[in-house]
Specification:
5 strands; globular; alpha+beta; 2 helices; five-stranded mixed beta sheet
Length: about 120
Amino acid sequence: MLSISNQKIYLYRDYVDFRKQINGLTQVVINQMKLNAMDGSLFVFCCKRKDKLKVVYWHNTGFCMWQIRLEKDKFKWPIKHADKILNWNKEQFNWLLKGIDVSKLNPHKALKYDGI
């Protein structure tokens, strides 16, 4: 299993051709996402059938790629989100892996009080 500590997690919302490997996916990060592929962040990609995910990240001296394929289900990929790139936290990423539709969750909104 992929170990996640404090890395930033970016989802590339558009579907990606899964013939792309590490070099092709890091080019998506650099050219389309306009992010630094070597900063230790996790970059998550999904195929059009939504049954596979690939995660690319820099680990000390080189790029690593992690892939998961579902046998009988689909990932709840957030295709209807307005942003092309989503910045998620570890908890949201784990929900995605468990099959929870993160876009339908409505957490409480944080309140800020002025001058009490």
